[in-house]
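Subject: complex prediction, re-run

Hi both,

The earlier run crashed halfway through, so I resubmitted it with identical inputs.
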Amino acid sequence: MLFIVIGALALIYARHYTIGTVTRMGPGYFPSVLAIALLLFGGIAVVQSLFQVAPAPLPRPNLRPLLAVTLGIIGFGVLVDTRGLLLAVVMLVVCVCHARLRSRPLEVAAIAISLAAITGFLFTRVLILPLRLI
Amino acid sequence: MPFLDNLALGFSVALTPANFLYCLAGATIGTLVGVLPGFGPVITIAMLLPLTFKLPAIASLIMLAGIYYGAHHAGSTTAIMLNMPGEPTSVVICLDGHPMARKGRAGPALSISAISSFFAGCVGVAVIAGFGPVLADAALAFETPEYACTIVLALVVAAALSGTSLVLTLGMAVLGLLLGTIGADVNSGSSRFTFGFIELSDHINLVAVAVALFAVSEIVSRMDRAEERHEAVTVRGLLPTASDLRASWRPIVRGTGLGGLLGILPGTGPLIASFASYAMERRMSRSPERFGEGAIEGVAGPEAANNAAAITHFIPMLALGIPSGAAMALMLGALLIQGITPGPQVMVEHPDLFWGVIASMWIGNAMLLILNLPLVGIWIRLLSVPYRLLYPVILVFCCIGVYSVNNSSFDVMLTAAFGVAGALFKYLDLAPSPAILGLVLGPVLEENLRRALMLSRGNLSIFVTRPISLALLILAAILVVVLSMPAWRPRKSSLAPH
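This time it finished cleanly. Structure:
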């Protein structure tokens, strides 16, 4: 399980090595030290895991919630600039509640609309943030 | 007396109607999230951080502080009533608080926990008021090498306490430091790791990362699980008996002292304080076998320790500008955005801020006593709100919050990306708090490190020849050794309720 960490670390390390060779306190010095430290910890972790009794394999993750939430947030980010806050909120709620869209469409719609209304009022009228409503 | 003058100034700031209301709001919100398991002060502060930008600095810190100690106060309510810790720090309260409740003594357990929280909170505030200025004076002797060493100490200890494997949590701290280097370099101005995004040149958005690593990953992992139902115990009679009070005043005082001390040390904090106090009470008790069966000492001591530590936890942040936990790191971020650099100068330049916040803590603790005891039924009923209604609300607030920091949809995308990373970390059981701490402290550490090395012309021995910095490094080493010993680790698996 730790190999993923190592993979990520190695990638980060390789990425900045080009700017990191400046030794005399250039901008790359500190990151290089950190990257080496990170590689070191990753290495120790892997070595440790080799000596351990094989741990129980991790359960297979259920990726659906992650996918739904991530899509929802990306959707919010895209819509909030182009189509306004209200639509972005509705979009986010629909994504997060996708599992119940079929079984309880009314509930999801109620959450989406009421949340859009409340946040729209709160953020643009009470707190006066520069947000587009529509 | 300057001390009394300062306190008078503090109360005059904290008692203005607006600040009083923010204190009440903070304490109420804190109680709310403290009751809900899984949603702690860190998530809430991250979520509300953008809203505080519009407020004056004092009001926002008063509110955020209220959320923080309110959550620590309230976490034990659900631990006692439902055997379900609202916060990780109240895991120990379950051990004896819930058995008490099952024996029909929920009322005394709740009131003892509220009384000990209140007492510990008041003492903790007094410690800040008395000790903060002293520490700030001492901190004036701090130069760049000392600051660098204190930051290392805070990171190492936070890492040692927050996970199962020290190597992995240290790795997370370093990862956070690396993320902190994203953006324009302090000295040369050249951009690093921006991967061509101009949005990244002004450093990575702390709110986006914090919301993603804490809130988004928590929601994703909870959506997977079925909702748990808990049977509530009914409360009959709130007041503790005289023998309850006799049995608990010593643990309360001991817990307060222990917690107050552990809270000041960078990196430790409420979690370790409550576990340590429980262990201490059990060892000191003449009848240790009662522990786990509803011993009132097992509620009073840890509860006091937890709250004393939660309050004195502010000292390193306010006096040195070095936060000792994820929640403190976010509050530091809030202050920085307001244009205030916490540190020894804060007390001189912004006495109204420092003393106002301290006075508000006293007021807030009194409010919490009222919020927690008579209103306990409301908070318990709140738990019947299904989580499926809460997820969308929390996510929507998080997204709007992240967006409104810079009015940038790029930050929202960043949240999505770090949300995936956070889910991965959670899946691999890697603790995110060292990473957040590293992210906040990274630029400060780099600057101090580079200045220190410039002073010494690149000679690393500057860190071990100066007495204070040497002492800090030795302290870090000792704490790591002690805290990584199995007896001190908060063993969630063995202590958690079945």
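The CA atoms of residues 34 and 78 of chain A lie 34 Å apart.

- K.
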